[in-house]
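Two proteins follow. First one:
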Amino acid sequence: MQAKDPSGGFIERLDVEVTQYETLTADELATIKAELDRLHPPKRDFPEPETGKSRKGVGGAYQGVFGRVVWSPPSDIDVSHYNTRHERWREGIEKSLRSYHTYLNNKEAKAHVHFELINSGSTPADDLAISFVCKSGVCLDLVREFREENNGGLTSPPKPPSGVYAPEGGMGASIFDAVRSIGNSDAFQGSGLPAIPLYKSLAGSSTRDPYGFYFHPRHDEPSAEWELRCEQFRHQLDPENFDWRVLMESDGSEMVRGVIRVRVSAANIPSPVTLNVPVQIRRRRVSTLDEAMAAIDPTVLAMKSPPRERFRNPLLGQ
């Protein structure tokens, strides 16, 4: 059993500084909301484009069918649907701002520790159990997959409805109105694809790989104690990897000194193997205000798919 840092170097102790973004205060939220209203107000006017003029036909192809084509602004129904979408978007932004510090903290690189376990013996280890127990204000969490999507919930505002150049009266006008209504409908102006779960569930499988590791039990939140078990830990193979995110148990502490105690036992091993890794974590507190103000900039919100950053943890793939 050996411990490594995120770069892959072997370590005897973990000594890191982590950045923690603070919850936005009521005054800071008010400041951001005011800027949001200034930058992204709902559109109220839908004038004819300056380059557009009432004209004969559409490229000449529909001259004989539709006749004279004129500018037609969005319908009252389209405008009403747009206003509803914009109001819902505004409410969603306010909700995301309240938890934006959590998004930033998940995005920020944290204290990680990596353990390697290898069976260098001549036979498999039967009914192996490996435990990770933290002491003195330290706890562990899985290095979950993080997807930097939609700017932490601060998504782009809905597109306003658009007018069209439509024939004056008759059947052609009805067809153009129908197409415009479809283009301005909620189906085409929705909020995007369904959310993807942050990590894959480990529960629900009726059959287990006898050579795989399984939590006993599994925690959905950070915990000071974790245990995994394996029926047959095979020998003379590549190491089994255990990646953890190391956290402070208390939000109020500026520094903690603790230890991670690793214990490995098996039915056919005479005595358990143990490893103690001292841990020191220092906290650097940072305001969320500047990050949130930058995030609502129109050029940022206009991005359809921000770059993704992913952390892969073998423990989550089982």
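Second one, unrelated to the first:
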Amino acid sequence: MSSNQEPNGSADQDKAKQANTALATGIALGVALGAGFGLLLDNLALGVGVGIALGVAIGAGTSAKARKKDGPDTPE
């Protein structure tokens, strides 16, 4: 392997970082929206809990969609 070639793990690390970023973004948005919803219902804890659940679902879906769009992990 020459010095200008990237190691094979670099692409895997980028995919993992993008997946974690999508999940973190989903959770952050879910907590923010859930807190607002909880304040409207006078039950902040319930709103944040629902927001986290929705944020994880949205983040995981976005992450899976991005992985599916990138194609298989095995080189051709």
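SUMMARY FIELD: The radius of gyration is 18 Å. The first helix runs from residue 9 to 40.
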